[in-house]
Amino acid sequence: MSFLRAMLQQALKVSGRSASPLFKWMERCLEGIAVGCARQSDNQLRTLEEMPGPSVFSFAWDLFGKRGLSRLHELQLDGRKRYGPMWKASFGPILTVHMAEPELIEQVLRQEGQHPMRSDLSSWKDYRNLRGHGYGLLTAEGEEWQSVRSLLGKHMLRPKAVEAYDGTLNGVVTDLVHKLRARKQQNPRGVISDISAEFYRFGLEGISSVLFESRLGCLDPLVPVETERFIQSINTMFVMTLLTMAMPKWMHQLFPKPWDTFCRCWDYMFQFAKGHIDQRLEKEAEAVAKGEQIEGRYLTYFLSRAGMPMKSVYSNVTELLLAGVDTISSTLSWSLYELSDHVNSSLPLSQISSTLSWSLYELSRHPDVQASLRAEVQAVLGDRLVPGAADVARMPLMKAVVKEVLRLYPVIPANARVITGNDIKVGGYLIPKNTLITLCHFATSRDPAQFPDPDSFVPQRWLTRDEGHHPYASVPFGVGKRSCIGRRIAELELYLAIARIVTNFEIKPDPEGGAVRAMTRTLLVPESEINLMFVDR
Ligand code: HEM
């Protein structure tokens, strides 16, 4: 068919504007037949109406009646068992299609288009428009997102660029080791309770050191008030995001509190980031004025040098600080489910803190792996105490441990895509454009067909050449154009921290503690405090 059309088009081109009406008529006929054929094959596709899934009532019961809000990751496993790898569910007006097989996830991501979209953070954009701020990587879409992404990618994704941050990050790791030592000494058995809280501060300090090459004091004995207020603003802002998006705009006048609080939180976050950026750049300018040679090694410096307008630098740095410590992929629907959990929680958790906590938790329960990991780090370091980025490249077990932890506990257990350009075909269904698609990463990474003995911590599975699973079965940082831009920085930070912790301490489970389960709070986080015993080495 396409061959015939091509021949006709060629004939039309050759005959020019005066082409015979017969040719044109024939082309229209062929077009009609082609559309008919496509329709026919589309007819074989099933529609959303035919897709299985729970009724609105039973889904609401799973979520609220059975405390499913914090078990959303397990609902993925239930859903797959009950309905197969693809099912739909409605929460109020929001309908979402779940995909719980790597092949399906791959099909979605391969059709996501030039400028992929996770979800529409409309209230975040409204705030920026109101205050005249620019959009950062989290809020920008389309061409604007593309240009910011290309610029940031140069400094955040290129291996050589990221290696340059190892000295800065190692300074933060040193503070963390001191902090852990001080904390363990406060307990007669050397137990540090609630290790995640310590790692949250480490995560924030780490990302800010990369952004400003200066410190926030998160690991000091007394955390500065402004920093505490920044952390609090992030948490409150997330809760208010949900409320403000659930309320139509005209209701903001009637019930102004959520929107006002939301704006105040963002105001503080922007002010906090701007304060640090301005302070850093002023120091830079003073040094230049004195004729000093400066070699900035922090992201803000690179961005301002690359000609990014300051308005854009402020918004991007604010959003990177936020992305570095809190979730970025929460879609409106997921967030709505979790509203109650957020409101009730006071403990902040981040991707870095969650991954580090689970890593040490698993290593404490697998002393053999911990011993092999320590041996690997020591063999690479020789007489040195502090690894650099280049050393990490020679630590395959370290990488396998982090991969395995992120497979077992994918910090973002479900991601989302909204394909806006056109309808897409996935797994025999036609998914209309603008449908919210939930990618069930937890389900695929715990699938026994992909990973034998899926609930066990077996880092060795990543060391064999033929890993035997689908490449989209465990993708904790996402895949493709809109995947995590902080991935390399996060991995480096994790490797440097774990290497120093296992060489400084032996980590054992708290003798009085039990197993800790995971729960969903947008991120997949420990359900209860992780307490660990640290023994000096
Ligand atoms: C263990 C640590 C981390 C994990 C597992 C993680 C995971 C993810 C995932 C799954 C996404 C969504 C990808 C997609 O939609 O395809 C994402 C996006 C993103 N992450 Fe991370 N992340 C981590 C740490 C970080 C850090 C430290 C930063 C900041 C430096 C960061 C910055 C971002 C940003 C800005 C985006 C949005 C990218 C865009 O929209 O173009 N992440 N991350």
TrEMBL record:
Family from the record: Belongs to the cytochrome P450 family.
UniProt lineage: Eukaryota, Metazoa, Chordata, Craniata, Vertebrata
One Pfam family named in its UniProt record: p450
Record GO cellular component, one term: mitochondrial inner membrane
Protein name in UniProt: 25-hydroxyvitamin D-1 alpha hydroxylase, mitochondrial isoform X1
Cofactor(s) the protein needs: heme
Gene coding for it: LOC105907733
Listed GO biological process terms: C21-steroid hormone biosynthetic process; cellular response to peptide hormone stimulus; cholesterol metabolic process; cortisol metabolic process; glucocorticoid biosynthetic process
Annotated binding of heme, by residue: 484
Entry-linked PANTHER family: CYTOCHROME P450, CYTOCHROME P450 FAMILY 27 SUBFAMILY B MEMBER 1
SUPFAM superfamilies reported in the protein's UniProt record: Cytochrome P450
Origin species: Clupea harengus (Atlantic herring)
GO molecular function terms noted in the UniProt entry: heme binding; iron ion binding; monooxygenase activity; oxidoreductase activity, acting on paired donors, with incorporation or reduction of molecular oxygen
The entry's keywords: Heme, Iron, Metal-binding, Monooxygenase, Oxidoreductase
PROSITE patterns given in the database record: CYTOCHROME_P450
Cited InterPro entries: CYP11_CYP27_families, Cyt_P450, Cyt_P450_CS, Cyt_P450_E_grp-I, Cyt_P450_sf
Residue ranges the record marks as coiled coil: none
